[in-house]
Each structure stands twice: as structure tokens, then as C-alpha cells.
Design a protein that fits this description.
single chain, alpha+beta, Butyryl-Coa Dehydrogenase, subunit A, domain 1, Butyryl-CoA Dehydrogenase, subunit A, domain 2, Butyryl-CoA Dehydrogenase, subunit A, domain 3
Length: 379
């Protein structure tokens, strides 16, 4: 059992950590206030060749592994949660389904622009009445004269304003328990396709979260992703990989909160000595450090299993569940250690708490993760 990163993973870690500290972190507070999407940051990441990091070089990717993807997601999230979730969704929700289920022609046409950064990756799954119950999908895709005619809406879709195309799930036949759900690639400039960006969110303000409305959107049947009727199965596989990304994002935000709390505890004096000399504060910081390390190891294990081609559904849910919950716990304690200052935006920690909450919801809520784990252990 070797816990040491490879030479390539260490190189990626060093590169992305420096980039995150120098390019991403300085503007995070202002982006949270202005809700400005970090487009310039992603232009630079494209130039660095990490926008397609875990995909093969033949598609413009970096040929790296899932552990490397987790490292990049964690470091970007440590600097700015909005940047971290944008990157994670771009890879795991936008690129992965195309790579896993697309034809060679679809990969060349749709995956390559994602890997090169020409387009952001996005995935249209969630609907107003189909969140945790994704099987409740109502968006329909009627097949006629060699085309799918798509009608319906999606909500809480990451990156869609900056995507040139995305895969959406839609009902292509059947009804009720026998509903047939398929995945279809849809260009965002198709007639009748609207991307609406007007959500007011608790956190992750600089990320792009949108509503999609489709009214008689027509695409050729060749835009079917994978096999007809296997959309439900495909997005379950997609979400397994996405949960590793959310786990890494949660670790990054927790790490940032811990670092701020540790720094503040060393600098702040009360009753004639620094906060870090009080045992109550030492124990809080020790617990924070311990839980972050455990969460990171869980993320790395799930990523490693995926890279080895081994089953990782249970571990992906475990790492996402644990990392997201300790992220909220660590952010809460960071605010507490800062006292009144922790409630102020200039000290960052309240942003970590707001940003971190999404990790307990996105890619399946904590309750859904427990259902997945229970199923995996034979309950």
C-alpha cells in the first residue's frame, strides 16, 4: 500500500498549487461579491493544458489519472470554491459522459472542444420535480423523421452559459415505471433552447448555475449518447465519478478554512496569549486537521479504485458524504475560532461555510449517499 504521489502527480500538485495561490485566490473575495465568472482563470488553465486533464491525449486531453483530477479540483477549491466546482463539473459531468458513452465521431466533435477549453462541459439532469428522484424526469424527446423533438426544462445546471453543447436526459418512450430515459447531446445555440442565468444563490456566487428551457428543440437522432433507454444507467455511472470531484472540492474548502483558522489562532491574542495556546482551540484545530486528512485519503482511494478499473461506487459515495460533512463542520469551527470577525466577509471563513454547503447537496444529497452506501453493503 503506497500513499506516495507519483512524480507526475507531484508535478501537477506543485503547478496547480502555485497557480491557485497566485492567480485564483487573490480575486476570490471580489468574485464572490460581484458574481463575475472566472473566465480569464479558465483561459489560463486551458493554456496550461489541464481542461481535459484525465482524458486521452488523442482528444486534446492530458492523459492523466483521476487522482490528478482530484488534486487539481482540491487546490482550485481551496483558493475559490466557485472555480473548483466549475472545473469539477466541466470534467466529470461535461467531459466524462462523452468519453464513456460517445461514439468516436461524437468524441472528436464534442469532447475535443471541452478538453481544449473551447467549450465548457455541462450536463442537464436535474429538473424542478426530479432532483434526488432523477427517475422522475419529465423532459421528453419524441422521435420523428430522423430527429428528436425535445421539450422540457432543467434546473441548477452548472456551466451551461459557457457550454457550446451538453448532454441532457429525456424520456424517449414508455411511461410510469417503464419510462425509457435516454441521453442526448444538444447544442446550446439550437433553436428553441434557452439558458437562463438568474439564480440568487447562498454561495459559489462566481460559478454559473442556470435553468434550461427547451421548446421543440430539434436535433438529429445521431445525437443520441450511448444506447437508447440507457440514460438512467449512464448518469448513475457519471455521478459516481462526479462524487469524487465534489469530495475533492469539499476537502479543498475545508483545507482553506482550517488554514485561515490556524493562522488567526496564532496571531490573535486574548487574555495575554495567542488563541493557539488555549487547549480548547488546540483541540478544535487538531480535529479539523485529522478529519481533513481522513477525507483526503478517502477521495484518493476512490479515485485510485476508478483508475484501476475496480468498482468504486461505494467509495465514491463515502468520500463525498464524509468530505462534505466535515467541510461544513470545519468551516463552522473556523468561523467560531474567528469569533465576530468570522462573521465578516473580509475574513473569508463565512464564504467557506456558504460555499461548502453545496457539497452536501450537489451530485446527490447526504441522504442519497447514505442510501447508495446502504445498497452497496447489502441492506
Amino acid at each position: 500500500m503506497n500513499f506516495e504521489l507519483t512524480a507526475e502527480q507531484n508535478m501537477i500538485l506543485k503547478m496547480i498549487r502555485e497557480f491557485a495561490d497566485e492567480e485564483v485566490a487573490p480575486g476570490a473575495l471580489e468574485r464572490d461579491r460581484t458574481k463575475e465568472f472566472p473566465k480569464e482563470i479558465f483561459n489560463k488553465l486551458s493554456n496550461m493544458g489541464v481542461m481535459g486533464l484525465p482524458f486521452p491525449e488523442e482528444y486534446g486531453g492530458g492523459g492523466a489519472d483521476t487522482v490528478s483530477f482530484a488534486i487539481v479540483t482540491e487546490e482550485l477549491s481551496r483558493a475559490c470554491g466557485s472555480t473548483g466546482i466549475t472545473y469539477s463539473a466541466h470534467i466529470s459531468l461535461g467531459g466524462a459522459p462523452l468519453y464513456l458513452f460517445g461514439t468516436e465521431e461524437q468524441k472528436q466533435q464534442y469532447l475535443v472542444p471541452i478538453c481544449t477549453g473551447e467549450s465548457f462541459g455541462a450536463f442537464g439532469l436535474t429538473e424542478p420535480n426530479a432532483g434526488s428522484d432523477a427517475g422522475g424526469t419529465r423532459t421528453s424527446a419524441a422521435e420523428k423523421d430522423g430527429e428528436f423533438i425535445i421539450n422540457g426544462s432543467k434546473c441548477y445546471i452548472t456551466n451551461a452559459s459557457y457550454a457550446k453543447h451538453l448532454a441532457i436526459t429525456a424520456v424517449t418512450g414508455g411511461s410510469g415505471a417503464d419510462k425509457e430515459i435516454s441521453a442526448i447531446i444538444v447544442p446550446t445555440d439550437a433553436e428553441g433552447f434557452k439558458v437562463i442565468d438568474n439564480y440568487e444563490k447562498m454561495g459559489l456566487n462566481a460559478s454559473n448555475t442556470t435553468e434550461l428551457v427547451m421548446e421543440d428543440v430539434r436535433v438529429p437522432t445521431e445525437h443520441l449518447l450511448g444506447k437508447k433507454g440507457e440514460g438512467f444507467k449512464q448518469f448513475l455511472i457519471t455521478l459516481d465519478g462526479g462524487r469524487i470531484g465534489i469530495g475533492a472540492m469539499a476537502v479543498g474548502i475545508a483545507q482553506a478554512a482550517y488554514e485561515k483558522a490556524l493562522q488567526y489562532a496564532k496571531e490573535r491574542t486574548q487574555f495575554g496569549r495567542s488563541l493557539s495556546q488555549f487547549q480548547a482551540i488546540q483541540f478544535k484545530l487538531a480535529d479539523m486537521a485529522m478529519k481533513i486528512e481522513l477525507a483526503r485519503n478517502m477521495v484518493y482511494k476512490a479515485a485510485w479504485l476508478k483508475d484501476q478499473g475496480k468498482p468504486f461506487t461505494k467509495e465514491a459515495s463515502m468520500c463525498k458524504l464524509y468530505a462534505s460533512e466535515i467541510c461544513m463542520e470545519v468551516a463552522d469551527q473556523a468561523v467560531q475560532i474567528h469569533g465576530g470577525y468570522g462573521y465578516m466577509k473580509d475574513y473569508h471563513v463565512e464564504r467557506y461555510m456558504r460555499d461548502g454547503k453545496l457539497t452536501e447537496i450537489g451530485e446527490g444529497t447526504s441522504e442519497i449517499q447514505r442510501m447508495v452506501i446502504a445498497r452497496q453493503i447489502g441492506c
